[in-house]
Amino acid sequence: MSKVTIEGVVKRFEGHAAVAGVSLTVESGELFTLLGPSGCGKTTLLRVLAGFYQQDEGNVRFGDRLVNDVPAHKRNTGMVFQNYAVFPHMTVFENVAYGLKARKVGGQELQRRVTEALEMVKLADLKDRMPSQLSGGQQQRVALARALVIQPQLLLMDEPLSNLDAKLRIEMRTEIRRLQRQYGITTIYVTHDQEEALAISDRIAVMNQGRVEQVGSPRDIYFNPQTLFVAGFIGTTNLLPARVQGGEVRVLDQALREVKAADGDCTVTIRPEKIALGQGEISFTGHVEEALFVGSGTTVFVRTPSGQRIEVRLPNEVEPPRVGEQATFGFRRAAAAVYGAQGEVLA
Ligand code: ADP
Ligand code: MG
């Protein structure tokens, strides 16, 4: 399994840079996720890695080997796509055998490797079925076995679960993670689903408009977003308009903290679960507009006198205020982050 190095990769379509200068290193055996909204360039970057697109600028290395000029079929990558596209007229076994036959593998070795790949994805018992006799999740497993059977040095997965229903999606992502760990397959996984990315990844690159905004572990990305875009994209967060005045950030008419930045507008973020009922280091009182019981807690929307709507997440041990009431909430200063006018984190 090889490490992947991406250096300053640019890919343009008709002058528009779908990938606008991306540099990343994916370690051997890592499950690395490209996460970002639709249209941010994830698929384009994955296709550059697979060799389906030639980049306009930059380098791609597998291990120490520069692969810029290596055609797709010689890169030894396994691909799994969103629309898993198994061959409908072939049995499960034949679907998985296809890539090996194309590589002139036959006889005993073909039998052995297909059986092994089918066992990896727990489909050995269904090897003689036709795809029409399989569930969506089983078909996706066939696609996975087909990618794994060639023993790729790199597994590329482009939104592989987005055609499955919610329950199956969670089951399959656990399955993919298990396989990936067990066999140490270097994997680059693409999704626009932040929860999926947080659950499955060793590290995540958050992309926006063809660029990488931040790279980090799921916890790092969630707890220390370095840009306002990442803060807003990952999880749920409140964006509170604020100001820097004489080196001090003021939010909700209170002093939050000192920062090294010039006077001007800024944004303070605070996650709903970091706000509690009652006074805090920073407090606000408002009109409770909604209180939604969501099982694991209650989501409360509060309107402040200045018109700001703030989302609060209360745990089940706390009796939530009633809709229509006035209530006071508070949070710790350290739980808030501050971002400048360019979206950069201010410390
Ligand atoms: P994502 O996978 O993150 O949704 P894509 O990589 O598919 O994003 O697309 C990134 C941008 O490049 C989008 O603006 C898209 O319209 C454009 N794009 C992608 N593929 C092509 C193509 N083959 N021709 C022209 N524009 C493309
Ligand atoms: Mg895509």
TrEMBL record:
GO molecular function, one term: ATP binding
Domain ABC transporter intervals: 4-234
Keywords of this entry: ATP-binding, Cell membrane, Membrane, Nucleotide-binding, Translocase, Transport
The keyword Cell membrane belongs to this UniProt entry's keyword annotation: yes
Domain of life: Bacteria
Cited SMART domains: AAA
The keyword Acetylation is assigned to this record: no
InterPro entries assigned to the protein according to its UniProt record, in alphabetical order: AAA+_ATPase, ABC_transporter-like_ATP-bd, ABC_transporter-like_CS, ABC_transpr_MalK/UgpC-like, Mo/tungstate-bd_C_term_dom, P-loop_NTPase, Transp-assoc_OB_typ2
Stored PANTHER family: MALTODEXTRIN IMPORT ATP-BINDING PROTEIN MSMX, TREHALOSE IMPORT ATP-BINDING PROTEIN SUGC
Name of the protein this chain belongs to: Iron(III) transport system ATP-binding protein
